[in-house]
Write a structure and sequence with these properties.
Two copies of one chain form a homodimer. Chain A is an alpha+beta fold and 162 residues long. The first copy, chain A, has a three-stranded mixed β-sheet with strand order 4-3-5. Chain A is globular and about 55 Å long. Chain A binds a DNA duplex (30 and 30 nucleotides) through helix 4.
DNA sequence: GTTCAATATGTTATAGTGTAACAATTACAA
DNA sequence: TTGTAATTGTTACACTATAACATATTGAAC
């Protein structure tokens, strides 16, 4: 579960990050895909925080033989991570977040706190069911769904953030 | 209702567009907002089709005193239309669609047909309810939700599109 | 261990999406 | 009429993402 919800103040982020990385390695080994240095570097940047990060923001945090990597390097790594379920693209932000659940296929709801800018995902089968039913009612055959919610996480709401 | 679902082959698009424009005018009059020429031009381009259109695609269809309008002109008009509920931004496409329902506030599910590229919206209270409940379960206070589904509309699915 | 195909990288250039900033103008109500 | 808010005109730029193509690396088959 590590960081599928907004992290508490006290959460051990070092362990959280390490776990997620280990999960990723296990997952990729299982499907014979390779976590190359570029890919790992991007994943680690994503795992460093619980915020969504844009490709160029990621770029700026990677030291690539003394240079900053080219956009294509980042986008390739992101495509790989997303296609293997190790990261999600957040459409409403044009940004990316790490996902700790690569092992079980899921179509999570993404929650975006507009105060602390952290993101979290939540697996709610009822949402998927409601969407599938609505689609079926109109004859639409779904394929891929995006559910993103902006608002305040419990911590920021409790603090009285606007 | 006009075009809240995928239009049938036989639908009278001329009437559909005219109705939507009239609805928009009524709605804006009611809130004392102005449908200026630029705004109306953008709305009309959106109403011309049931596809989502990017800002630059819209730009190319507008004759603005013999020139093509600057991006800022289009984005201002789009911001206005979206904020008054006359258009939706489709996050997963970075594109916009006209919305015929400005009068009743709604958080629709957007369906995107990847074969015919048309888009439609569908109002399913059960989806909103499922999302609200999921959010509440985690203490998140929602504010704005995005629900987009890619797949095949009934017509394309029936035709056996991949 | 060589060869082959598939996968991944390096690099440059460019396409596509969206805003900032500020001056000028217009609409409308006091 | 005069002031204020909303809207427009314009230039420039920032951010997001992909195309294209050459090179190199990997791993499996022989």
């Amino acid at each position: 579960m590590s960081h599928s919800l907004f992290p508490s103040k006290s959460h051990d982020h070092d362990a959280c990050r390490k776990d997620a990385l280990a999960n990723a390695q296990r997952h990729l080994a299982a499907c014979k895909a390779r976590l190359t240095p570029d890919r790992q570097a991007v994943l680690e940047v994503l795992l460093d925080s619980h915020r969504a990060q844009g490709a160029y923001e990621i770029m700026d945090q990677i030291d690539w033989r003394g240079r900053r990597p080219a956009p294509a390097v980042i986008y390739r790594a992101l495509d790989f991570l997303v296609s293997h379920g190790l990261a999600h693209k957040i459409e409403s932000l044009n940004a990316f977040m790490a996902c700790p659940h690569a092992d079980h296929a899921h179509k999570p709801m993404i929650m975006i706190c507009r105060d602390c800018t952290q993101v979290a995902e939540f697996e709610a089968p009822s949402i998927g069911r409601a969407i599938s039913k609505a689609a079926k009612d109109t004859g639409f055959v779904p394929d891929q769904t995006t559910v993103e919610v902006t608002g305040l996480c419990s911590t920021c709401a409790a603090r009285g953030a606007a």
